[in-house]
Amino acid sequence: MAADVEEAQNDEAQNTGDAVSGDGVNDVMVETGQLSAVDADSDESSVVEEPAAVAADSSTGQKAGVQASDDDDDDDEDDEDYLVEEGEIAGDYLEQLLDVLDFDGDIDLDVEGDRAIVSIDGGDDLAKLVGRKGEVLDALQELTRLAVQQSTGERSKLMLDVAGWRASRRTELGNLGAEAARRVLESGEREELTPMTPFERKIVHDAVAKIDGVASESTGVEPSRRVVVVKA
């Protein structure tokens, strides 16, 4: 499960290729990279020798704490501003793409956690931008990320949704994971689900984790890697 969480947070460390179908647009091949995160823990210690030093250190510590808090607030604002900028760049790119394809659609921008969220809604032909099992949407998302990266110089983790497909899929997978967990809890027998992408598996893992007495893990290799639900 930990591997899937890391994969999903870095959003599907695999090659994605699919066709974006529309007037004037042929097959588009997208190749994505993989990032790894390294976490480090640090310990702090202090030495108190005299009461006077305690008072001085306490005062200094309080000031330092206030300063650190202010710095954190500034960092949060800077991060959000950057994500808003990412969304605006993505919105401009997608607006031009919709014009080329002669598709109608309203583009909405938002920020959720540590990523920009861009959604396209309202058009009649938007299902063509989703494709079979969201494959065209995945390719379009990668193209949009590359457009943002070309502008900012930083790899983007923005999430693109079209016609509410990802939101519906998230709900569907959450229900799927919860139902499988309840069946395993009652029967005591392990249950294998169908192959999924890292992003989809993470949604299922999260749903299973909310139910006591069961656990989930992933097995197999891409593209046949799947979630297995077992009794804890």
Structural class: alpha+beta
Residues in helices, as a percent range: 40-55%
Report the radius of gyration as a whole number of Å: 23 Å
Helical region count?
5
Q: What is the averaged pLDDT score?
A: 78
| Strand segment tally | 8
Low-pLDDT residue spans: 9-56
User: Terminal Cα separation, in Å?
Assistant: 14 Å
Q: Helix and strand string, N-terminal first?
A: HEEHEEHEHEHEE
Largest sheet: 3 strands, mixed
Beta strand %: 15-25%
Q: Assign an overall shape.
A: globular
Strands in their spatial order, largest beta sheet: 3-4-5
Q: In brief, what are we looking at here?
A:
With 232 residues, the protein is an alpha+beta fold. It has helices at 2-9, 51-101, 135-152, 165-187, 198-209; strands at 16-22, 25-30, 106-112, 115-121, 159-162, 191-195, 214-219, 226-231.
Describe the fold and architecture.
By secondary structure, this protein is an alpha+beta fold. Helix content is 48%, strand content 21%. It contains 5 helices and 8 strands. It has helices spanning 2-9, 51-101, 135-152, 165-187, 198-209; strands at 16-22, 25-30, 106-112, 115-121, 159-162, 191-195, 214-219, 226-231. The strands form 3 sheets. It has a 3-stranded mixed β-sheet, with helices on both faces. It has a 3-stranded antiparallel β-sheet with strand order 6-8-7. A hairpin with a 6-residue loop joins β7 (214-219) and β8. α1 crosses α5 (198-209) and α4 packs across α5. It is globular and about 55 Å long. The model is unreliable at 9-56 (pLDDT under 50).
